[in-house]
Amino acid sequence: MAKVKLITRFFEIEDANLLPIYEANGGYAAARKVVTESWPPDKIFSTVKAANLRGLGGAGFPAGMKWSFVPKDAEGPKYLVVNADESEPGTFKDRHIMLKAPHLLLEGAIIAACSINAEDIYIYVRGEYYQPTQSLERAIEEAEDAGFLGKNIFGSHKNIKVHLHRGAGAYICGEETALLSSLEGFKGWPKLKPPFPAVKGLFSKPTIINNVETLSYVPIVIDKGPEYFAKLGVERNGGARLFGISGHVKKPGVYELSLGTPMRELIFDHAGGVRGDRKLKAVIPGGSSCPVLTADEIDVNLDFDSLAKIGSMLGSGGMIIMDETTDMVKVLLRICRFYAFESCGQCTPCREGTGWMTRIMERVASGEGTSQDLDDLYDVAGMIGGNTICPLGDAASLPVLSFVKKFRAEFEAKVSAAKVPAASGKKSAGEEI
Amino acid sequence: MSVSFPDKEKKRVEEIIEHYPQKKAAIGDVLYLAQKQFGHISPEVELYVASLLDLPASYVHQIVTFYTMYLENPVGKHLMLLCNNVSCMLCGAEDMLAKVEKKLGIGPGETTKDNKFTLWTVECLGACEMAPCLMIDDKLYGNLTVEKLDKLLDSVE
Ligand SMILES: Cc1cc2nc3c(=O)[nH]c(=O)nc-3n(C[C@H](O)[C@H](O)[C@H](O)COP(=O)(O)O)c2cc1C
Ligand code: SF4
Ligand code: FES
Questions:
Q1: Claim to verify: residue A336 and residue A315 sit in the same structural domain
Q2: DSSP states of A390-410
Q3: Which of B66, B75, B143, B155 could be joined to A187 by an S-S link, Cβ 3.0–4.6 Å?
Q4: Can you give the pTM of this predicted structure?
């Protein structure tokens, strides 16, 4: 278990973003095989299922299984949508793929489209990603010219067209139902499920949404075989993934490691350890919505199930490292502000709750908070999770719950016990009379 | 002055619409096109975009206000997006903000007197490995220090 070079292989080859170089390095062999050998959908998704490829956008849903949810008898168009909105704080891996290996993504998307018989692929790229968008535009043009996209791809009877759609600055559009609304020309408001997009998605047609990285592993799974891929990882967590590591670390960047690699190995061996050789204080393991880990909790393996077991998440693989000098109150305030700003406002618990949490945290951070505030914060956070249309509510509350619980002493130190409102009647910890 | 696209942009609108089974879905890119052409999305521009896509102007307005990258108001010649999310904050985003404030005399949301720069503080730009980072127009700059930022600001025309 360690460093692998599946996607990152292409990062190291000069100009692998260009079609001739990508092809010379084995590119498009998998898509050509699937298309020219007319693989039936079942064969594609059972291969991907056997590889145990998990969705790498955050939720970790098995990729092959998701594709099999598209009703076989559905008439009319079906769509594949690529989620390239990458906006979860701490996450930057998809940007690297789009810049350096755009054809790998396109190839994976072609294969996924074949598995659901989709003729149109929409790639939803976040608006701020100008260079990645240009890189994709160029790759799409090259692939069209080569006959890998467009009509009769690879000389077959299949037609697949790729459309690029630029987002315009709204984190919530990364959530799949919001993304579809946004693609249709609406505000990016999430919708209740069911109906699931696989049944009724984009323009009310069956739609599969996958993350950039998930799709980029698909050609590799086909090339190397599902057994090889599955074995690289651990049980139910096949293969590898890109970990983005940033914050107080010596060598921030993207590292591709097999799933199940110890977190300590990533932080200290690959990323060089904590900046300035200071002590590690905390780690946010997979994007800012994942519960924070203390330095004592990092002896965990990097796979979806292991992180779930200790009450956190592997999420998007965007890891943020914090050293001993970090003010956890300030970090949590920053996270609270983010979710309050990005809440779409449809659900009362999320809209009001994120605002309350931010205001309480502003008080606490400025030294005007009370112990009661900490209890309230905890209560409010507890009331949001599970009571909303989309998981942004949970994303906003999980950091609060984990920061306050795990770094309570630091939060306590910030609040002045003397200021407990008389009306509350509650005595707070640390209060002295 | 009545608002209207030159022929080339009009053709581009048709091409954008081609990508979707429903005209409304083209609104995002048409707004970007309009923003490029007219600088920002004024009420007149909203009305014009609405007419191109057979939508009510109020609908276009909703979209413009929902997304942060559509400019309702004019900005300076260069729009600077300074990331202040967690990774950048840990790596010195506050020093970058202080530098910009001191050097250009503007805070978040403000424009320099000579109309050269508008500053926004923004959420994670998806480039945390280069923290602290910022964008000026469509270019990303990372691994900033106060000195590098100073030089960068000087180098912008
Ligand atoms: C608030 C919110 C933001 C999200 N942002 C992203 C994102 O930027 N990119 C992404 O791939 N998935 C994001 N997701 C997850 C998507 O909803 C969806 O699960 C994912 O795109 C599915 O692809 P996968 O199965 O390949 O991971 C987000 C989810 C939520 C709730
Ligand atoms: S949970 Fe928040 S972001 Fe999600 S739909 Fe409800 S209000 Fe909108
Ligand atoms: S936090 Fe600044 S780019 Fe991610």
A1: no
A2: STHHHHHHHHHHHHHHHTHHH
A3: B66
A4: 0.96
